[in-house]
Every structure is written in structure tokens, then in C-alpha cells.
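thought: fold this chain, then report.
action: predict
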Amino acid sequence: MFHKKNDRDELTEMPRLRIARLDKSRSGRTLCYIDQAVLDNLRLSTGDIVEIIGRKRTAGIIVASPADRGKNIIRIDGIQRKNSGSTIGEFVTIQPTITVPAREIELGPTKEIYNIKKQADIIRGKLVDKPIMTGDIIEIPGTLIKAGLEDNPMNGFMSKLGGGEGGGGARRPALGPLKVIVLSTNPTDRVVRFTRNTRVKISKKIVNLNSTGKPVTADDIVGLDNEITEIKKILNLSLTHPSFAENSKIEPPKGILLVGPSGVGKTLLARIIANETEYYFIPTSLTDIFQKYQGDSEKRLKQLFELAEKRAPCIIFIDHIESFAPLIQKGMITNAWYFEHRMVTLLMELMDGMHHYRNVLVLAATHNYDLVEPALLRPGRFDIILHLPLPDLNSRTKIYQLYTKELPLDDEVSLEELAELSENFTGADIKGVCRLAIISATKRDKLDLQNDFDELSDDEVFHAKLNNNDFLIAIEEIAKRLK
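observation:
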């Protein structure tokens, strides 16, 4: 049942409820189990819809929880916690709301899925009556997805490339959960209810999510604004306005090489470019291309470029290109040497022939510039080489701010001083410092680290503040690893 507006207007003060763990058997259904006493006070009951307001907003279907009477808590699952920007032990506000039927909803998948049109009907059936807001993450069980490593977005594309006889081991589709993010709803800017008449639009682009569950954007990286702007300008020239080549008789850049130490943000920058542009994005690495039988690896690489042409305008991202196309060493000729030579030669041929693959650009990354085959760095292949610097003092301070903004810090902690002590640290190193500082504080709080944080009982939730010593211990540990 849904409350009328005049009912809601009479409610003056919305309660702040502490988040508690929801049993996994009840997760995935947008349910929020709320203290019965709170519901009585708000004249709400099971089946009503509320907005859950933390650092972000989401919605949930109320289930009265008599067992929690007087505890002033709300039990929601991990997805809802991400959607509200909150975690166990933190407080959220609930607010009664009225939902309207969604006319259309656009979803962005986080994995490649099979037969988008047919699966849109399946997805619709599993979302009926769910309250939804733009920006929500939704987990849809029983979806045909590309099988493979969970954290490798290239698996889906590789399945396509390897199809047919002698394709080199194409993976079969797997039935499993698919996380999608709600990109837009119609009507907009309110809680909508999914119905059997809701039109489902599924984006062809794979959405990359950051650790908080939001799509990665330039806000997730510090100190590389100039590089992001430069890459976008080049992409605009090469992919959006290729007629430049016809008018000037000079071909636009075919490749961009990102160079920088491990952890400086090369791969993250590529994911940001993928999310913040409209171009199709195909990430790959040597492990995605390499096949057991001779000739299959070359076939996959060629098919990769053919797929990019079909999806154009398209970016092919090759991570760790120093292992994909290493410097061809003189000396003993081995099977490995033959393989490397064939792959490097084919990649150069494909890039030289990219006038056949219109509106395709290769973006690559390396942490060891000296190990990349020099022939690839000649004009006409990787024309643009961007060296990503280590973060300076100001950038390191901002990185600490980025990773600690949701952490409980003691008043004595100075992020500027921590940044000064973290000279030559990359963004990944600073993230590691924050992680170790949490572990140090957790040990002081006598929390059992063997437990999954989502499985902790309410009285086990970590509440200790991180102090200066926690960070100093962590910085010392990371510094040892960098020597």
C-alpha cells in the first residue's frame, strides 16, 4: 500500500536508523527490515516504499521486523548499502515516498551479456514491482553472461572472437548474477516502479564501477586532469572527426601509449575514458589473446580489430603492452621468441593497416617503456606517448582525502603531513597505506579479521578511529616494499 501525500506531509521528523546486517537468504529483493516501533510511529507497514538516504539516495520495500522492536535499526543488503552510500553501523534516514510506474528505464551492464533483446524480457520479468532510482545498482540473478574471470571485462569479447571451428576455446555462456546500473529513468528524478509495461533499454557499453559501486569518473583519479583532457582531444580528432585526414592528407593518431610506474593510474585512466566517452571500449591483455595452438593467438588478435571496426568508433585498450609486444631480443631463438616475434609483427601490420579499420584507436599502457618493441613507437603507430608522473605533494594530499573521506579519523591526523611522508608513492601505494591503517586500527579494536565484514554481528562492527600512528605504521610498511 502507498501513503497519500497528506499522510506524508504530517510526518515532521524523519528517523535516523542504524544499518544492521540482513540475512543473505533475504538479500537481492530490495527489502528493508525496519524496527516495528519506528513503523508504528510513522504509520508505515509492510509493502510501503521508502527512500533510504545516506550519502546517496535509494529506495526499498518495507518489511516490519518485530524482532528488532526498540533497536532503532534498518536491515538492508550489500547492494542497498552501496546504493545509499552507507555501510554497516552507519546511520541513514528513511522517508516515505510515492512511486510512479516507469515508462522506460536504461540499464548499463557491468559484464557482456548474450542476446540483449531476448534477455531484456527476462530482466523485465525479474524487476517487476521493484522501486528504482537513477544511479542504483541492481543484481539480476539467472542472466546469461559471458563466463570467465569475474574481474576481467574482456571475457565477453573474447568469447565472440573465438567462435567457430578452431576458434581457440570460446567460452560458453554461464547462468549467473548480472549487476547493472540504472543510467536513466522516465519519469526522471524520482522513485519509479518497474512494471510489465516498462520499456527496457540496455546500453551496449560495459559500465566500469569503482569501489563504491559508482561508475568510475575523473573524480576517482587525482593529478591527471591534463592527461585526460589531452586523450579526449585526440579521441575527438581520431574517432569523431576522421574527415580531418581527408582534408589535410595527414592521418590522425592511431595509437596512444601511457607510460608510468605501476600504480600511477594508467588502467584507471583508461576505464575513466571508457565511461566518460561515447566510444565502444574493448580492453585486452596478453592473457586474453594467448592460445595454446599455433596460429590461434594471431587469429584472436586479428578478430579483435575486426570487432573494433564493427563497433566503431572504438578504442582498443592493451594493458601491459611490454608483455604483449616486448622488445625482440637478439640471441637464442626459442619457441617463445617465435611467438613474440609473430605477435609483434602482426600488431604492427594491423596498426599500419588501420586505414582499413576506420574510427579505431589503440590505447596501450606500460610500466616499463624500455621493454616495448621500438618499432611500435615509430610515427604512424603509437604517435602519442604520454608519461604519467608520480603525484606531487598537492596531489598526494588530495589522494589521501579521496581515500579517507569515508573513514573515521582521529583529530590528530594531518593528511598534509602524511602526504609529505609519502614521497614517491603512487595513488595505489597511498590506497595501500589507507588499507593497512584500517587493519592497524582494527587490531586495536580487537576485531576478528577472519570474518567477512558483511557477516559481522552488530556489536562487532568496527568503530575505532584511525589515529596518526596507524598511518605511520602503514607508510613504513609500504616504503619497505618499494625499496
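thought: worth noting. The radius of gyration is 25 Å.
final: C-alpha cells above.
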